[in-house]
């Protein structure tokens, strides 16, 4: 590569780096204004042992038997829980959320570079641009407070998802290099996704796709076949240890519902359609980015290998269906409501699949459309597209729905929410009373960019101080060693 190419590459890195900063800074501000919430208190309570390691082991075992099969995730969440420091968290909690977010972001960047390079036949520079466009649509369309502003939510959902992507990236790297470190890496990276019920189908399907379809494994080569099946066997064993855990059945019984596989499958299809309609009607920037990906695909030209958009669509549907089905079925969902942390997975998988499909579509039609993006014609096309994009964003103030702009607009409310709930936590911690009553005249308005502690005025938090986990109410009184906690709004 000549000097001009190097300068171009460096320029792209600088521009994209600046754009990433613009995307992340407002989100980081929201995360910085985070407070401990909901399950944080049970994970941070040392109700089994004062020894952090023994408490984490005991917590994972108890939950595997009584609440959830995610034994490995629960162990790690408990072991490195910020609330283990047993003092007022303050801003440190938000910093921990930012650290987890940046770690997930770094894993996604690395994984996208490898996965997109192989799947879409892109060079390094092209991969960087497509990766940015995909990250942009993920970060600007919706905000997920339960996945970004909550330690338990982020480590239970965003980290397994990032490790799923890393597993697939390592699988591709191993097939390309046969370097044993990538083989070991893909197994280790896949342990956490494999022991989370919502990742079992995605990791199995994507691993099989890479090994048997993308690299066309020779089934007659018995030694190579066994070698490639070993990680899958590990993933299956991990999945069995999670899915068939006694705690899953106990948890389902607590919902007091009668699930139906057929109704759950129907509901997931409805959920997908509703979300796609919402993106089309309310989030024009997402549509603009998808069109950019199509144009990029046209500019990149026809793929040398097979370009099967149908396979991409089918694979995306199977992965999103496999991720959401255990949740929808287990709770017998009959509405389009999904917990925000589950909506994160649902949306991310769909938007990544659409993005890859858009590039594939662009490359598919490239032979017939490439001429419109050459010479003076391209300026006309880009000009018309630019004008239409601006009109779409200005119509009904649609630009204000972009996550980053909306966070900036609501920054004062976010800060007020933090001060309010952090003050409540401080009052609980500093109270000399065994039965704590927190009284306020009013509370801040709801915001999608802040996750509330979880205290509800109607509830009294008076669980036994040796309680390990509760399906009914959160456990701040156990964590703070109080006989009871009440939260009252005096109007």
Explain the layout of strands and helices.
Elements: H1 3-32, H2 40-44, H3 52-66, H4 71-79, H5 91-119, H6 124-141, H7 145-148, H8 151-177, H9 180-194, H10 200-214, H11 222-243, H12 246-255, H13 261-282, H14 284-300, H15 309-330, H16 340-369, H17 375-394, H18 403-409, H19 411-430, E1 435-440, E2 460-461, H20 476-479, E3 484-489
Parallel strand pairs: 1-3
Antiparallel strand pairs: 2-3
Question: How widely separated are the two ends?
Answer: 70 Å
Given the C-alpha coordinates, what overall shape results? globular
Q: How many runs of DSSP E, i.e. beta strands? A: 3
Uncertain runs are 1-6
* Number of DSSP helical runs: 20
Backbone structural class: mainly alpha
The description of the largest β-sheet is: 3 strands, mixed
User: Per DSSP, what share of the residues sits in E-state strands of 2 or more residues?
Assistant: under 5%
| Cross-sheet strand order for the largest sheet | 1-3-2
One letter per element, helices H and strands E, the order comes to HHHHHHHHHHHHHHHHHHHEEHE
Mean of the pLDDT scores? 93
Rounded radius of gyration (Å): 24 Å
Indicate the percent of residues in helices: 55-70%
Folded structure, characterized:
The chain is mostly helical and 491 residues long. Helices cover 69% and strands 3% of the residues. The chain has 20 helices and 3 strands. It has a 3-stranded mixed sheet, with helices on one face. α3 packs antiparallel against α4 (71-79) and α3 crosses α12 (246-255). The longest helix has 30 residues, at 3-32. The model is unreliable at 1-6 (pLDDT under 50).
């Amino acid at each position: 590569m000549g000097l001009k190419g190097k300068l171009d590459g460096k320029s792209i890195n600088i521009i994209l780096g600046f754009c990433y900063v613009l995307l992340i800074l407002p989100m980081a501000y929201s995360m910085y204004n985070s407070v401990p919430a909901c399950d944080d208190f049970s994970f941070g309570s040392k109700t089994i042992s004062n020894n952090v390691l023994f408490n984490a082991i005991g917590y994972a075992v108890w939950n595997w038997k009584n609440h959830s099969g995610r034994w490995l995730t629960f162990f790690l969440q408990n072991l490195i829980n910020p609330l283990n420091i047993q003092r007022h968290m303050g801003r440190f909690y938000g910093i921990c959320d930012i650290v987890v977010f940046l770690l997930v972001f770094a894993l996604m960047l690395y994984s996208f570079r490898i996965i997109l390079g192989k799947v879409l036949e892109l060079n390094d520079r092209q991969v960087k641009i497509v990766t940015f466009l995909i990250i942009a649509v993920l970060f600007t369309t919706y905000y997920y407070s339960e996945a970004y502003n909550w330690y338990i939510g982020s480590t239970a959902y965003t980290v397994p998802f990032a490790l799923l992507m890393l597993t697939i990236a390592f699988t591709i790297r191993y097939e390309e290099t046969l370097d044993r470190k990538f083989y070991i890496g893909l197994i280790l990276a896949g342990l956490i996704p494999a022991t989370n019920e919502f990742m079992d189908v995605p990791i199995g399907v994507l691993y099989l796709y890479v090994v048997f379809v993308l690299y066309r494994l020779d089934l007659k080569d018995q030694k190579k076949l066994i070698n490639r099946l070993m990680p899958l066997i590990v993933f299956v064993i991990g999945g069995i240890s999670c899915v068939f855990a006694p705690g899953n059945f106990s948890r389902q019984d607590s919902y007091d519902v009668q699930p139906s596989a057929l109704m759950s499958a129907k509901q997931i299809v409805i959920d997908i359609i509703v979300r796609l309609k919402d993106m089309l009607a309310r989030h024009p920037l997402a549509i603009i980015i998808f069109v950019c990906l199509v144009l990029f695909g046209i500019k990149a030209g026809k793929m040398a290998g097979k370009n099967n958009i149908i396979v991409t669509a089918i694979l995306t549907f199977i992965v999103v269906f496999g991720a959401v089905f255990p949740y929808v079925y287990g709770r017998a969902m009959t509405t389009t409501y999904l917990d925000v942390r589950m909506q994160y997975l649902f949306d991310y998988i769909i938007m990544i699949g659409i993005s890859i499909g858009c590039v594939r579509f662009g490359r598919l039609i490239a032979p017939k459309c490439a001429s419109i993006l050459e010479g003076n014609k391209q300026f006309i096309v880009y000009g018309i597209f630019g004008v239409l994009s601006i009109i779409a964003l200005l119509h009904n103030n649609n630009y204000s729905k972009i996550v980053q702009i909306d966070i900036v607009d609501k920054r004062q409310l976010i800060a007020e929410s933090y001060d309010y709930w952090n003050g409540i936590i401080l009052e609980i911690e500093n109270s000399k009373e065994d039965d704590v009553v927190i009284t306020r005249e009013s509370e801040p308005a709801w915001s999608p960019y802040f996750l509330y502690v979880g205290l509800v005025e109607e509830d009294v938090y008076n669980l036994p101080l040796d309680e390990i986990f509760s399906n009914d109410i959160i456990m701040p009184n156990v964590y703070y060693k109080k006989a009871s906690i009440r939260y009252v709004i005096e109007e």
